[in-house]
Amino acid sequence: LPQVRQMTGGLLHVSEITSPVTAYSHDITVSEADLAVAEFKAVLHLLKAVLTRFGATPQDVLIVHLYLSEISHFQLINSHYRDFFGTLLPPSRSCVAVGNKKFPGGRRVLMDCMIQIGSGQYMRDKDEDPYAKAALLTTTSSLRQVLHVQSISYWAPVCVGPYSQVNTLRSGLHFLAGQIGLVPATMKLQTTWTGQLDQCWTNVARVLDGLDGGSL
Questions:
Q1: Among the residues of the chain, which ranges form H helices?
Q2: Whole-structure pTM value
Q3: Is 193 exposed, middle or buried (0-12, 13-18, 19+ CB in 10 A)?
Q4: CA distances from 35 to 21, 63, 159, 162, 185 (A)
Q5: DSSP bridge partners of 11
């Protein structure tokens, strides 16, 4: 079962979210990617149970760390990810492939996330949730802010996902999406690993600098 740490103010960290069993099929037409999708659906089912238990929704998730056995599984998994989290003000995300047989029992998917209860309602100006209601009455800080780049620009890669470049919690803690060495204006990778590394840091700096008041 996932590990849940509950902190003050409705903040949750959920870790070790993985399928209860390793997906398997005797049908040779079922691919590794299909089995990874089956495991990811189980992951989402477990996360949904945690959210419901604490009175939260998928819109309250700030950031997701998604680990896959193979990056080739991402495309199929991403369609289910989109259905679960939606495309409006989504969480930031980092997705990493770690290789086959790296997870317990040969599983293919592992996930963890941070959740601020009520933050989804807060960003949509709704106050049914007590955390959202209290935050909307606060003028000195914001419960949550999102930077979601949705078009080609010169300063930061467009968010192909869905994911947001950064989610800011309580006007002070920034949860950034993972970066690769994409040139924002062309959405093409730098050709060398050193160029990609430099581009990643440049993209991060520009995202942080684009926040209200700047962060660098």
A1: 32-53, 74-85, 119-123, 130-136, 193-209
A2: 0.91
A3: exposed
A4: 11, 25, 27, 22, 36
A5: 7, 116
Amino acid at 56: A
Using alpha carbons, list the distances in angstroms from residue 151 to 74, 160, 184.
Answer: 22, 10, 10
Per-residue pLDDT of the chain (216 residues; tens, 9 = 90+): 799 999 999 999 999 999 999 999 888 889 999 999 999 999 999 999 999 999 999 999 999 999 999 999 999 999 999 999 999 899 999 999 999 999 999 999 999 999 999 999 999 888 889 999 999 999 889 999 998 877 777 777 887 778 899 999 999 899 999 988 999 889 899 999 999 999 999 999 988 888 865 444
List, in sequence order, every residue forming a beta bridge with 147; answer none if it has no partner.
Answer: 166
